[in-house]
Design brief:
26% strand, 117 residues, 6-stranded antiparallel sheet, 4 helices, Aspartate Aminotransferase, domain 1, 6 strands, alpha+beta
Length: 117
């Protein structure tokens, strides 16, 4: 998946926004203000995604492309290398997992005001 495809896929999600809060290289995707994905736009060879801790361990054991989150909580975030043993379909599933995990962690008021369609 290239940066354009990744940007398109993440941007289509309900309530998704993107920004560069840290520097001019790290593109951050948020759902209603909370991060669910980070990618370096200049060296687009991996993505950081939030993950259920047990599932994160399972993925790391199964795929060499999945490592503990770079510069993130290793318990809750994974870094997934592109063009390795994680295909685009699985990558989209992991993006969806991250998005839904972050959405579920939003305050109830925000979720009530913005129910997923």
């Amino acid at each position: 998946m290239n940066i354009e495809e990744l940007h398109h896929y993440c941007s289509l999600k309900q309530g998704a926004t993107d920004c560069f809060p840290f520097d001019n290289r790290t593109l951050v995707f948020k759902v209603y203000g909370k991060m669910f994905a980070l990618v370096d736009v200049e060296d687009c060879n991996s993505i950081n995604l939030k993950c259920d801790p047990d599932y994160a361990i399972e993925l790391r054991e199964q795929y060499t492309a999945v490592q503990p989150g770079f510069h993130m909580s290793h318990k809750h975030w994974n870094t997934i290398q592109f063009n390795n043993d994680v295909n685009d379909l699985l990558l989209k599933e992991l993006i969806d997992h991250s998005y839904h995990l972050v959405y579920k962690g939003l305050p109830k008021k925000v979720r009530d005001e913005n129910p997923l369609r």
